C-alpha cells in the first residue's frame, strides 16, 4: 500500500522568527511527517491595505488592529530564510515545502526546487495564478475550503488545460474556519470529490485534535495536511487551531497504524498472527463420560469443550448413533477411529 503523504503545516506559525521556524522543522521531523510546509508571499501582492482580518484572526490575535495587510506584513518569510530552512530540513531528513500565494512567489519556489506546488483554498478561483502554476508541470495539491464542487471542477480543468495533466493533480477536502466545528467537517465530501473528478483525494484539517484526519485516512485520504505549532499559547492567527509537537507525533503514528489496519486484501480469513490461537480458543467434541466398547452414541454422551484439537462441534450430528469400537474415558477428544 502506498503511504499516506503527511504534510506538517507550519504556515506562519514562525511569527517572523527564524529560530522558531527551525524549531518547527525539528518538531515535524521528530514526528516523522513527510513534509514541513511554510507560506511564501509578499503582502503587497496578495492583499489590499484596506482588507480586514477574518473573525478568527481578530479573535486569535487580539491586538486592536483589524488590518489583514499589517498582520501579513509581519509574517512574510524573507527569501534567504527559504534557503536556510530548505537546507535545515534536509539535514533533518524531512522535505521542505511552501505554499506560494502569488505568481512571483511561485517562480521563486520553482527556482528553489520544490518538487510540488500547494494551492491554498483562497486561490482556487484565481485563474491566472492557476494557469501560472500549471505551466510548471509539477505535482499540484489543491485545498478546497469555501469551494463548491463546480468550482473545484473548474479549477482542475483550468490547470489541466494549462499544462499539468490531471494525473498530477490531488484535491484536499477542507474547511477554512479555524478551528472547524465538527458539525461542519462534512468528511463524506472528500470521497464525493474523488468520485466526481477522478483525482487523488486527501484532507486538510483545521479541527481541534487528531480524530478527523485519522478518520479521513480510514475513508481513503492519500494526503493529510495539518497545522502545528510549538506552543498554542503563542500570539498569531493560526496557533490556537494547531497541534503541539506531541500531538503531531501522535497523529502521524496513528495514521501509520491506520494504514496497516486497512491494508489487507478484504477477504475474511485467519491472519498469520491468530492461527496459533485456533486450537486454544475454539472447542472440539469430547466424550462427556466413561463409555464402554459397543456403546451407541447419544447427544448427552458428547460435550463441546476446549481445546479445539479434535473434531469440530459442527460435525456433532455425524456421530450420534455411531457405535464405539473401544472403551473411552470422559474428556477424551472424539476421533473417527473410535467408531465402527
From TrEMBL:
GO terms for biological process: carbohydrate biosynthetic process. One of its GO terms (molecular function) is N-acylneuraminate-9-phosphate synthase activity. InterPro entries: AFP_Neu5c_C_sf, Aldolase_TIM, NeuB/NeuA, PseI-like, PseI/NeuA/B-like_N, SAF, SAF_AFP_Neu5Ac, SAF_PseI/NeuA/NeuB. SMART domains: SAF. Residues 284-340 form the AFP-like domain. It comes from the Bacteria. PANTHER family: N-ACETYLNEURAMINATE SYNTHASE (PTHR42966), SIALIC ACID SYNTHASE (PTHR42966:SF1). NCBIfam families: NeuB_NnaB (TIGR03569). This is N-acetylneuraminate synthase. It comes from Flavobacterium cyanobacteriorum.
